[in-house]
Design brief:
heterodimer; A: about 500 residues; alpha/beta; Fumarate Reductase Iron-sulfur Protein, Chain B, domain 2; FAD/NAD(P)-binding domain; 3 domains; five-stranded parallel β-sheet; 21 helices; 16 strands; about 40% helix; globular; B: alpha/beta; Elongation Factor Tu (Ef-tu), domain 3; Rossmann fold; 2 domains; binds flavin-adenine dinucleotide; binds iron/sulfur cluster; binds FE2/S2 (inorganic) cluster
Chain lengths: ~500, ~280
């Protein structure tokens, strides 16, 4: 820890930053208002897939960068799971050197254009900004600025491909191409390994592709990053399920000496209430996969999707928000969230809830479904719901929802999306009997090296955490890459 | 990309394909299936692996035309490429020596049944197979089935081949004659439902291989879910084979119809483009 603080101090004392600090009074910096993200009109955007946030203009970004005080003790960094040197990158923007800012981001975060868009900043970096904790004011828009720098670099055509060490010929396999796998493969390539990423689906990107919709994270943004990894020599093999298409032993025979497993938490949960298997009731994974991965809403694609008039989405997380906003875009007259707690407890990003409301999504908070009813063809036609109230906090620290007896009523629905969480993907643990897993099905790892009970196998992301965030998954991937490097270096020496 | 190496038409609507897929050929076992996607805009559909040749690195698929994707596949020829082939998926059939096994295959269900027949025969069982279809032309793979069966009974609805009658009549003929230790039934959901009711009457343990609608085939979406023994199961990872006496076949029939309207529209659109071409 000591040396990190020293390092940050040394960076901060560099002349260019000292000069920038002096160039403007702190009072002046704090008196400016936080930049507002330019957005597409809600009544236009809820009919198509255009990105909702348009990105800060240069003028806005430069003004916002000035708000950052370049604090001697930058608490914001502690709020970022991968420890981005936040004041350094913001001051590069302040200085007008945006390409340099992008480089700073890439020191610790391989996918800044993604994180700037989807990180729950209000719970992470921005929650720990000096403005938030000491002044009770709106924080510096760290996420907006991160996105700005990354987009600027991508659009400049001068995207830097990170330097990589000479290929050492040692083969490492990465299982799963979500953010955990992508982050691990980038770092492993930098160390000089011969990296192959195996992906079960036909597309690379994991949840970034099949889950998070285009209007929040355009595929193009993800593809540019994947192509960069390709330029660094990372090989991608789609349609390959490790543990099925080939076993770990088969891959070892082919010369793979270490593995990173980032297989995600892909198994959808249902509530096990009566009628849940009627037609028209989907898991959010199925609903979003049909639309995002299979392009079901477009006529020229073969995959069908049911687009209902009255759509209920059960849950209050990012996945629920994405599903309900997709339903609206597919033409729903009523698209509603049914959530058993209140808005305060919603795990979704605050910005998504705000956007959903603007787009005409109805919120039935403190409500819970009990049973579904179907028409004579087996298609869901209505749902019985019950009102809830909040009791004492539970283990998660959130107030426990308690059903109100006698408050049940029925509403018409023709499509339901169940979005009440996911469990870890069981494919890998199932295929490796000697691998240590928890009762929840997550892989047990050493939190410093991400090494599992099998020395050559490392893991991270949702398969270890059981459902978290993009940036936490990436942080794990990077940590595991370092762990693998240490493990292999010692093995080669021995 | 996987190349189609050979194609053989069994009838107007059923064809066998031999496809280049070395890794899958090596790891697959009876009961496994693959998911294929024909092209950039295609959908993902599940197909059972009917056989494989490890040395040549090929797998065999037998496909019946029922809608857009199967129709497009049937119009493809040797030399064409299938964009995505992923597998082997599902749990393999639990093959052991039990004594006498009664296998029943309806329509294109004979294709997934074939490797299971072969497996049980090689494990030292007496295998009797009932093949059933509407009419003579729709009886497929009869010779291959004979190779691994001690006896084959053919049943057609119209009596154009073998005996006239339903699959259940053929099954009962065997059950009334000799002791059956296990039954495996694969075919249209409605056929499996009645086959399961028949064996239940005689208390014979029965497996059915369910062909639900699927998307990913890896347990990620739940499109394939079905109630078995009162619990929701995912066919692609928990199955595709289940204890037939526990399966809610009525629910399965309903779920298979989930996209009927959309599928019909898509099929009509496809036929228009084919006719205009
Ligand atoms: C709809 C939705 C919205 C979300 N929104 C946000 C958000 O706004 N902000 C945020 O921070 N987080 C969000 N999340 C959570 C975030 O996406 C996940 O925490 C993150 O993607 C986890 O990354 P991962 O790499 O561990 O796994 P995943 O992204 O799940 O990737 C795992 C990949 O591994 C593949 N795989 C699995 N098993 C095998 C195998 N045996 N062989 C080969 N490949 C295999 C899978 O097909 C998949 O592609 C959201 C999640 C969803 C579903
Ligand atoms: C594990 C598994 C193994 C299978 N193995 C084979 C195989 O070896 N050979 C083969 O020909 N088919 C097999 N099937 C069925 C095959 O997947 C479907 O026929 C195919 O998905 C239909 O796609 P389509 O676009 O041609 O028709 P669609 O347009 O999707 O459907 C047309 C009509 O066919 C019916 N239908 C749709 N899906 C199915 C289904 N899964 N089963 C039965 N009827 C359906 C529907 O009622 C629909 O109205 C298997 C299915 C599963 C789940
Ligand atoms: S990666 Fe996420 S948490 Fe870290 S600085 Fe960027 S937006 Fe904030
Ligand atoms: S805490 Fe806030 S103001 Fe201080 S350096 Fe970080 S972002 Fe800038
Ligand atoms: S097909 Fe998606 S879970 Fe079975």
């Amino acid at each position: 820890m000591e040396n990190i603080i020293d390092y940050l101090k040394a960076e901060r004392s560099q002349e260019w930053r000292a000069e920038l600090r002096k160039s403007m009074k702190a009072k002046e910096r704090t008196s400016a208002k936080r930049a507002e993200m330019p957005e597409e009109d809600p009544n236009y955007r809820n009919t198509n897939t255009v990105e909702v946030n348009k990105g800060l203009t240069e003028k806005q970004a430069f003004a916002e960068a000035k708000r950052c005080l370049d604090c001697p003790d930058p608490t914001c960094i502690q709020g970022c799971p991968v420890g981005i040197n936040i004041p350094k990158f913001i001051k590069r923007i302040d200085q007008g050197n945006v390409l340099e800012a992008a480089k700073v981001l890439k020191e610790t975060n391989g996918l800044p254009a993604v994180c700037g868009r989807v990180c729950p900043q209000e719970k992470q970096c921005e929650a720990s900004c000096f403005y938030t904790i000491k002044m009770g004011a709106t924080p510096v828009a760290i996420g907006f600025l991160e996105r700005f720098a990354a987009d600027y670099e991508r659009n400049s055509g001068k995207m830097a491909v990170p330097e990589i060490s000479e290929n050492n010929g040692i083969k490492v396999a990465v299982v799963g191409s979500g953010p955990a796998g992508l982050a691990a493969s980038g770092d492993l390539a930098k160390y000089g390994y011969d990296v192959t990423v195996f992906e079960a689906l036909h597309e690379i990107g994991g949840v970034l592709k099949y889950g998070i919709p285009e209007f929040r994270l355009p595929n193009e943004v993800v593809d540019v990053e994947i192509n960069n990894l390709r330029k660094m020599g990372v090989k991608f093999v789609p349609n390959f399920i490790v543990g099925k298409t080939a076993s770990f032993d088969d891959l070892k025979e082919q010369g793979f000496q270490a593995f990173f497993v980032g297989s995600g938490a892909g198994l959808p949960r249902f509530m096990n209430i009566p009628g849940e298997n009627y037609n028209g009731i989907f898991s959010s994974n199925e609903y979003l996969t049909r639309v995002n991965l299979m392009n079901a809403a477009k006529e020229e694609f073969d995959t069908p999707v049911i687009s209902g008039k009255n759509v209920a989405v059960i849950g209050g997380g990012n996945t629920a928000m994405d599903s309900v906003r997709v339903a609206k875009r597919l033409g729903a007259e009523r698209a509603m969230i049914i959530y058993r707690r209140s808005e305060e407890e919603m795990p979704a990003r605050v910005e998504e809830v705000k956007h959903a409301k603007e787009e005409g999504i109805e919120f039935m908070n403190l409500h819970n479904p009990l049973e579904y009813y179907a028409d004579d063809k087996g298609r869901v036609k209505s749902v019985k719901i019950q009102k809830m109230e909040l009791g004492e906090p539970d283990a998660s620290g959130r107030r426990r929802p308690i059903p109100i007896e006698g408050s049940e009523f029925i509403i018409d629905v023709d499509t339901v999306v169940v979005s009440v969480g996911v469990s870890p993907n069981p494919l890998i643990p199932k295929s490796l009997s000697q691998l240590k897993v928890t009762d929840w099905g997550t892989i047990v790892v050493d939190p410093n090296t991400m090494q599992s009970s099998m020395p050559e196998l490392f893991a991270g992301g949702d398969i270890v955490r059981g459902g978290a965030t993009v940036i936490l998954a990436m942080g794990d991937g990077r940590k595991a890459a370092a762990g693998i490097h240490k493990y292999l270096s010692e093995k080669v020496k021995a | 990309m996987s190349k189609i190496l050979e194609k053989e038409l069994f009838s107007k609507n059923v064809a066998k394909f031999i496809i280049d897929a070395p890794s899958i050929a090596k790891s697959r076992k009876p009961g496994h299936f693959v998911i294929i996607r024909l092209g950039e805009k295609g959908e993902r559909i599940p197909l059972t692996i009917a056989g494989s040749d490890v040395e040549k690195g090929t797998i065999t698929l037998v496909v019946q035309k029922v809608g857009v994707t199967s129709a497009k596949l049937l119009s493809m020829e040797a030399g064409d490429e299938i964009r995505d082939v992923v597998g082997p998926l599902g749990e393999a059939t639990h093959i052991e020596k039990v004594g006498t096994v009664l296998c029943a295959g309806g329509g294109v269900g004979v294709a997934p049944l074939l490797p299971i027949i072969e497996g049980f025969k090689k494990a030292g069982n007496r295998v009797i197979t009932v093949l059933a279809a509407r009419t003579k032309d729709l009886i497929i793979l009869e010779d291959q089935v004979r190779e691994f069966s001690d006896e084959v009974i053919v049943m057609t609805d119209d009596g154009s081949s073998g005996k006239k009658g339903l699959v259940t009549a053929g099954m009962e003929e065997v059950i009334n004659r000799e002791k059956v230790d296990l039954s495996v039934v694969i075919g249209p959901a409605i056929m499996m439902k009645f086959a399961a009711l028949t064996t239940k009457k005689y208390n014979i343990k029965t497996y059915a291989s369910l062909n639900t609608i699927m998307v990913d085939g890896t347990g990620m979406c739940g499109a394939c879910r079905i109630t078995v023994g009162g619990k929701t199961k995912f066919v692609c990872v928990d199955g595709p084979e289940f204890d037939a006496h526990q399966v809610d076949f009525d629910q399965m029939l309903t779920r298979l119809g989930a996209y009927k309207d959309e599928e019909l529209k898509a099929y009509e659109r496809y036929m228009e483009t084919v006719q205009n071409a």
